[in-house]
Amino acid sequence: MFQPGADPGSSFPELLKRVGLASASGDSAGDLSVPHATTCVALRYTDGVVMAGDRRATSGNLISHRSMEKVVQADEFSGVAIAGAAGPSMEMVKLFQLQLEHYEKVEGGSLSLEGKANQLSMMVRGNLPAALQGMVVVPIFAGYDVRRGSGRLFTYDVTGGRYEEHDYVATGSGMLHAGTAVKIGWRDSLDRAAAIALACRGLWEAADADSATGGPDALRGIYPTVATITAAGWTRVADSELATVFESIATEVRAR
Description:
The chain has helices at 12-18, 86-107, 113-126, 128-131, 175-185, 192-209, 239-255; strands spanning 36-37, 40-45, 48-53, 57-59, 62-65, 71-75, 78-81, 84-85, 140-145, 150-156, 162-165, 168-171, 225-230, 233-236. By secondary structure, the protein is α+β, with helices and mostly antiparallel strands. It has a single domain (35-255), classed as Glutamine Phosphoribosylpyrophosphate, subunit 1, domain 1 (4-Layer Sandwich), CATH 3.60.20.10. α5 runs antiparallel to α6 and α6 packs across α7.
């Protein structure tokens, strides 16, 4: 609790450091069998952006989780897709969500999309000591820029370098296969249905060629996490709709 006149500041991570609650980084051993999240993609379409991620997490050659959520809502108009060490990734996303909420409550307004991307860049840079020991976190940040009236995509490297992508981006172990599929199918005039189908196609191709990427699991009812971010905000695509999309892809592959 803060007394009247005591300014907590707009940065939640800095507040944690001041009160002694910041978690230490860089203490993880590189030889631990740590669950890793894998393939995620994001792409722009006419109304905003689509984000998609498979649900598999692996520990070496073992499947450690089959239903991990790698695409997470950051706030009303943005989301984060994670790849890398699962534990640090989820911790970073939760801290990022709190940072955005904290800033909005303290300042009375939300950060710009550019400011949100910069804030996440600082968090990725702060994870560098752990990344040097194998606990790498490589997210995708995407959102709808209400000031520009369009969707925007940002990707990062392990040092916190932030890069804006104009059309599409992929990350994770299956990024080559997913990114190639999206690259071939991407058009500037994609509507919602076509953008979702293309993102699912990218994950399908990644799962077909990369053992760490999970495909749709109709037996268990597990489908990739797919969400759209538009002027209306964040919306998760229902599994029933994804089931239809993946069945269409499977029908096409069987016909070939």
